[in-house]
Amino acid sequence: MRIPTVLIYATFCFYANLTFAQVENNEKNIKSFRNGEMRNLIIHELPRILPEVEVLSKKGDTEVLNFDSQQVLLINFWATWCLPCREEMPSLSKIVEAIGSNNFSVIIIATGRQSNEKVKAFIDEHNLYNLRSYRDPKGKLASKLGVLGLPTTIIIDKGSMEVARLIGSTDWNSSSAISLIEYLLTRHSNE
User: Does the N-terminal or the C-terminal CB of the chain have fewer CB atoms within 10 Å?
Assistant: First the structure.
């Protein structure tokens, strides 16, 4: 038995409209968090797939970061010589504490030429042990992910997609930032 082309077309249109409505609805929901400290948040019209990337661990070993973790992630590109980066870093640590979920973590990637010793000294000085720390000494990863300035924070949802980014520093421990992360933590479980 052959299914009429019209029926196939109608079914396709129905599901396509449903999918586009869901993407549009999710974008609207994220946009509602664009206030206060999150007012400069750049929200992607369509979420972006992130490739596996290589970074240097604290020990200097090459490590592959795979973003298929079912976690909400903040990936912050920073440098020890960048004053706004240094000022923002404690708030990244505080949001980890405020959220208190195994499904959320912050990855900090020191990009550009800076020694492992300087990075470690900064982390030790500010007790930033709840942040996963890596280095990108040649800036290859920053370039690959389109990071144009420091600090830049990439926001990844539980579906392992980049949904937004923030260029410049902010207070990640603000109520608007915490609300955004809490929303992203519950979003996929409600879809």
Answer: N
